[in-house]
Amino acid sequence: MDKTSASRPTAQEDAYISQNPAGRRSLWERSLGFLALMVVVVAGFLLIACSASPPRIVVEPLTQDLGERPQELIELTYTVRNEGGSPLKIEKVSTSCGCTQAAVDRETLAPGESTQLRVTLDPTEDNLYGNLIRVIYLRSNDPATPEVEVEFRVTIHKPEG
């Protein structure tokens, strides 16, 4: 095979070139290819965005037994984690009693992040003593568990006097 025969177009190539003198795809063909590529890219992004798992709140421990304590300020913490695939938003923190205060360090957690739930009980405020159970409620955007309850138990000694 000589060099000149290798560079000659085939019959199919001749037909294509005669229909398209520039020997290239038409603007319509190029636009259609670009449009198809864009549809595939956008569909891929939508699929990825829609397939991300929702947020999932996990609080540890769910209960704490503090045993017996004198009638003085009590401070304790819980760990709040997002084990889901989307940001977790802690929308509200409330307690079962006005003598108990609770707050989270951060209200929005990315997947895998955690924060502290800080709780205080002041039994001297209302002269509380005896067996106490207090509940803390955390409302979030977790669709499976929109509200989590954690609790602590404590026996407060009656003050002398």
How many separate domains?
2
The total beta strand count reads: 9
- State the oligomer: single chain
Q: Mean pLDDT across all residues, rounded?
A: 86
Q: Structural class of the helix and strand makeup?
A: alpha+beta
CATH class annotation of the largest domain: Mainly Beta
Uncertain stretches: none
The termini sit apart by 116 Å
Task: Indicate the radius of gyration in whole angstroms.
Answer: 33 Å
Word description of this protein:
The protein has 161 residues and is α+β, with helices and mostly antiparallel strands. It has 2 domains: 3-51; 57-156, Immunoglobulin-like (Sandwich), CATH 2.60.40.10. Helices cover 24% and strands 40% of the residues. It contains 3 helices and 9 strands, in the order αααβββββββββ. A hairpin with a 6-residue loop joins strand 8 (130-140) and strand 9 (147-156). The longest helix is centred in the N-terminal third of the chain and has 25 residues, at 27-51. The mean pLDDT is 86.
Give short descriptive properties of this protein.
single chain, 161 residues, five-stranded mixed beta sheet, four-stranded antiparallel beta sheet, 9 strands
Secondary structure: elements and pairs:
Blueprint: H1 3-6, H2 11-19, H3 27-51, E1 57-60, E2 63-69, E3 74-82, E4 88-95, E5 100-104, E6 108-109, E7 114-121, E8 130-140, E9 147-156
Parallel strand pairs: 2-9
Antiparallel strand pairs: 1-3, 3-7, 4-6, 4-8, 5-7, 8-9
Short description:
With 161 residues, this protein is α+β, with helices and mostly antiparallel strands.
